[in-house]
Write a sequence for this structure.
């Protein structure tokens, strides 16, 4: 016998299936990321037409079959309609949904992940801080609630909390000066065994380590430690923002390793 369930969530994506149907991906509080078919949702008079599109937040009633879900009805609480009024904001919103779809899991409750996505989409609309800072905060916060964020409170090597002047995406977080120098010396020793006579470059010339200022470190710590409800109330200097974006980009390239179409469109717009 087919059973129905009701979940709270946001539609991350919607793809056409057949002549009139849609396949949607939901991020839900109760069951994490799930896929469902919205039958007939692309018909002009369909009841599911408006509530089976990206950004829609609400309560969704689904038939739970043996191998898939089917969307039966929805009680929409927020369409995030204003996101669609500006092309750049649309692509940021789509990116947030793509990112959430990439890092969340199926079958596991996603209360915090859903909260981060919902609040971050709202922050795009409020424009109290710049969209690039919203993006950086969203990425770090979503990684954190998914359990894959960088370590920025202590050295990933010795667990010391002082002199965290460097960030290594490869090693997963901040590295103190002493450990960074030790790692660099070990690597250079290996290189010199293969290539004698080479001059050892300065530490900040290596691609494995990025310098992080005290302000950038504090910003990352603040993002990870602050409840999502209070997060989008701060600003940073342009220098800190540039360094923050670079650190996050390197971390994502190694630990997520996925290209997002929405980011490609944002780069074209920029």
């Amino acid at each position: 016998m087919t059973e129905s369930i009701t979940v709270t969530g946001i539609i991350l994506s919607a793809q056409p299936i057949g002549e009139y149907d849609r396949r949607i991906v939901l991020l839900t509080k109760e069951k994490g990321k799930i896929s469902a078919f919205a039958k007939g949702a692309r018909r002009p008079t369909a009841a599911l037409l408006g509530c089976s599109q990206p950004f829609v937040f609400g309560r969704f009633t689904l038939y739970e079959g043996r191998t898939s879900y089917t969307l039966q009805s929805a009680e929409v609480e927020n369409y995030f309609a204003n996101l669609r009024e500006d092309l750049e904001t649309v692509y940021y919103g789509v990116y947030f949904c793509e990112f959430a779809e990439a890092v969340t899991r199926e079958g596991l409750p996603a209360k915090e992940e859903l909260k981060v996505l919902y609040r971050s989409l709202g922050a795009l609309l409020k424009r109290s801080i710049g969209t690039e800072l919203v993006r950086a905060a969203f990425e770090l916060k979503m990684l954190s609630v998914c359990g894959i964020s960088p370590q920025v409170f202590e050295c990933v090597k010795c667990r010391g909390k002082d002199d965290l002047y460097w960030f290594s995406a490869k090693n997963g977080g901040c590295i103190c000066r002493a450990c960074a120098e030790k790692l660099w010396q070990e690597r250079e020793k290996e290189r010199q065994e293969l290539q004698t006579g080479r001059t050892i470059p300065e530490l900040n010339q290596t691609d494995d380590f990025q310098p992080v200022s005290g302000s950038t470190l504090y910003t990352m710590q603040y993002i990870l430690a602050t409840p999502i409800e209070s997060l989008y109330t701060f600003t940073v200097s342009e220098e800190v923002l540039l360094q923050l974006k670079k650190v996050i980009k390197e971390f994502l390239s190694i630990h997520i390793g996925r290209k997002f179409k929405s980011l490609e469109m944002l780069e074209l717009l920029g």
Notes: The two ends are 52 Å apart (CA to CA).
